[in-house]
Amino acid sequence: MSINTKMHISKIVSKLFFSLLIIALFFHSKLNFSQIPPLATTSEFAVFTSVGAINNSGTTHIEGDVGTNAGAFTGFPPGIIVGSTHIIDFASSQAAIDVDALYNYFSGVFCDTLIGSTLGESQVLIPNVYCISSASILNGDLILDAKGDPNAVFIFKIDGAFSSAILSKIILINLASSTNVYWQINGLCSLGDSSVFKGTTVANGAINALEASSVEGRLLSKAGAISLNNNKITLPTISYSLPIELLSFKTQCVNKETILKWNTISEINNAYFLIERSIDAIEWNVVGKINGSGSSTVGKEYVFKDKEIYRHIFYYRLKQVDFNESFKYSPIINSKNCIDNSQQLDIFPNPSTGMVNVLFSGEKEQIKNISIYNSLGEKIYNSGFFQSEINLSGKREGIYYIHYNLNSEIFTKKLAIKYLE
C-alpha cells in the first residue's frame, strides 16, 4: 500500500471519528436532560450559598437545611429552620463543590427553545429546556403544564439577572412538580413581594427573597449573599397521580355558572371526590363533594356546578378519597371568567405619552386602590380611590402594570408609555 493511500485512509478514519464524537456528545446532552440533574448533597438544602452571608428579617420559615461556606449567618431566630444548619463546616464545604458542579451541569445542557425575556402573563409552557439570552422578569402567572407526565422536566437557563414582580406566581398543572423544575441564573435573583416561586434555583449571584415571597424548591448560590424577609421556603414536592384513571378534567361557563366535568376510565376503592377551589393555587377551600363509584372498570362521568358568581379566574382540583380515607390530588386546572370585572375598566390612550384617562363603567366607590408598577415590579403610583386621570409624564418608555382593587380582588391592565419622536 502506498504512502498516499495510507494517508487518505487515515484522513477518512479521522473524519469518521470526529463525526461519531459529535453525535455522541449531542445525544449525551439530550440524555442528561431526561435525567434528574446531579443535586448530590444540595438535595437536602432549601437555602445555601457557597460564598456569602445569609441574612434574615422577620419570621421566615424554612423546611430543609440551611448553610453557607463563607459568610455571616443572622436572623435565626426569629426565623425558624426545620432542618440542619451548616456554617463553614464539612457539609457546607461539600455542598459548595456540589453547587458549582450543578451550575456547570446546566451550562452543558443544550437549549431546545429560545424565549423572550418576559415570562408570565398567563403564559403556558410545556416540558423543555428554555434559554433566555438576557436579564429576565416574571410578571403575573407562569403556568407549567406537564401534560400528564409526572416525570416531565422544565429547565430555564437565564444569561443575566432574574426578578419576579409583586404577586407573580408559578403554577404547576397536569402532574408538573416543583422537584422537576430548575432555574440557572447568571446573575442576581430577586423574588418580588408576595410572589410564589417554584423549582430549584442555582444562581451565579446574590439572591433576594423580598417581603412575604414564598418558594417551593431551593435557593442555591455559588457566589453571593442570600437575603430573606418573612418568607416561607420548603423543599420541592412530588406530584402524585390519582389512584383512578382520570380521562379528562375541565371547566366551562354556562349561564354565568362554572361547570366542572371529569371522566374516569376505571376506579378502585373510590369513596368520593372533594372539589377544591383557590384564587392563587396555594390556599384551597372545599366547595363540594361528589360520591365515587367504588371499584369500576366502566367509564364514569361526573359534573359539579359552582353556582356562585365570581369575578375572577379561579383554580380547581379534585381530592379523591378512598374508603380507607387515603387520598390523592388531581392536576390543577383554571377556570374562565364567567363574569369579567376587568372589562369594566378601560385605559386610554394606550400607548400613552404620559397622561392616562381611566374609564370605569361600575360604581367607582367599589375601587379601593389603584397602583401602578414598572416592569421591574417597582411601585411608581398609588391612590386610595378612583382617579379618572393619571399623570405619568416623565416616566421612562416601556410597559407598566395598573393594579386596581375591586371588591377585594386585584385586576391588572397593561399600559405602554411611548413618546413621539
Describe the structure.
- The protein is mainly β.
- The chain folds into three domains: 40-234, no CATH class; 244-334, Sandwich (Immunoglobulin-like); 341-417, Immunoglobulin-like (Sandwich).
- It is built from two helices and 37 strands.
- It has helices at residues 3-34, 90-107, and strands at residues 45-49, 54-57, 61-63, 65-68, 73-74, 80-82, 85-87, 113-114, 118-120, 123-125, 128-132, 136-139, 141-145, 154-158, 162-164, 169-173, 181-185, 189-191, 196-203, 207-209, 214-221, 226-229, 232-234, 244-254, 257-278, 285-296, 300-306, 315-322, 327-329, 333-334, 345-348, 355-360, 367-374, 379-383, 389-391, 398-406, 409-417.
- The strands form six sheets. Strands 1, 3, 4, 6, 7, 8, 11, 14, 17, 19, 21 and 23 form a twelve-stranded parallel sheet that branches. The chain has an eight-stranded parallel sheet with strand order 5-2-22-20-18-15-12-9, with no helix packed on it. Strands 24, 25, 26, 27, 28, 29 and 30 form a seven-stranded antiparallel sheet that branches.
- A hairpin with a 2-residue loop joins strand 36 and strand 37 (409-417).
- The chain starts with a helix and ends with a strand.
- Mean pLDDT is 84; it is low at 5-34.
